[in-house]
Amino acid sequence: MQAAVMTATIVGVEAVPVEVQADVSSGLPGFTVVGLGDTAVMEARDRVRSAVRACGFEFPNARVTVNLAPAPLRKHGTGFDLPVALAILIATRQVPSASADGAMAVGELALDGTVRAVPGMIAFGLAASRAGARLLAAGGRHGPWDGVPGLSHRPLRRLTELRHPDAAALPIATTLTAGTDEGPDLADVRGQCHAKRTLEIAAAGGHNVLFIGPPGAGKTMLARRLPGILPPLTDAERLETAVVHSVAGLDEGPALAGVRPFRGPHHTASVAGLVGGGSPPRPGEASLAHHGVLFLDELPEFGPAALQALRQPLEDGYLTLVRAEGKIRYPARFNLVAAMNPCPCGFFGDDVRRCTCRAGDVERYRGRIGGPLLDRIDLCVRVERPAAGALLSDDTAETTAAVRERVLAARERAAARGGEAARLSGAALLASCELTLQARRQLEVSASAYDLSGRGITRALRVARTIADLEGAARVSPLHVRDAVSYRMVDR
Length: 492
Hints:
The chain is an alpha/beta fold. It folds into three domains: 170 residues, Ribosomal Protein S5, domain 2; 212 residues, 3-Layer(aba) Sandwich (Rossmann fold); 69 residues, no CATH class. The protein is built from 21 helices and 17 strands.
């Protein structure tokens, strides 16, 4: 007796369909699972046997062979428990075959037969929707798969409910609820007008930022306010972000509600922790910051390998991990905000406290970052400690909402031309800038004076285009170019 049930396994941030084939035949009693499963898949044998018996079914006293096809694809996770149990119950005719018709089953089984959700449920929902199948999994009317178009869900609490294949599948809500978390307000930051304007430019054009300043200057405080001035996530961006968090086993609720992620890993983070990896592979901090902000405090303290691994996502918006079993691609389009002290003691160039570092120490400290990474940072700003008068002032500072309105207007102008400036390059960038003759000459002079690399010129042009958008200008002027080049401090 044989039966087959559709399920899926996570590869990167996608759920790849897998067919669970069960064969129950005469012979010495045994339970074998083949098909390149990991330890969690192999342990399904014990969970399935206990769950089947706990729900009043009879586990076959025969030779049971379960094959996970396609065989060359590595499978991992406890989500195979439910489809394996369902395939065995159908093969032994204890459950109608209609239970698995047009369904994708995913779920972990407790020893008492309770069905539990597993990491990556949104990815499984998307896979079921693409396959035109209903999702057979734990949950209720609403779940992490809300917003997946064309998906219906048959909720299961225990294996015993499989006896009733005619239970109606619930349609999934396709409208996502807007979030209410505004985050910390930019008005809380006193002074720092130049740094605030830098954040506004970064939000309007999708640029990366490096804050350099002494301890207590407010670098972290500024970084935490960037998500609030970014435009709201679109429904597509919400799903993309939520899928990554779901696969990583994190709460996908904030992303589905439209809250942009803010990730601030410690400087001791490993390469795998920052860009992804492990066994089984899981997304790293760069991917968890997808469509949000990745904040790297104490930038020079991060390992050189970890910092250099960020070069691909900063340039392309995704990460490619090459493993023995193939390539895995993770999305990683984020706004990078990095912060660092100007020297090991933190007070190089400070007006109040004297720096105690030697010149060689300062040079080595700054050299830890590396030119290729610095070349990919568009906006580099010196942040000074605000004066006591500014901190105690009663003057009303500009709020996050006011800045966000200007950012949205600039993004709308950019969208009319084809997208935010940070993603433009080559002929498309030049056409978008519409440089005046004076602006072109200004860029040539600045590039020569500051020895800008080819990438540095491109990124200065992108920043100039964003500044023009914020001012409502159709063409990039010499003033916009000079302003943009002033942020290329690292190239001087």
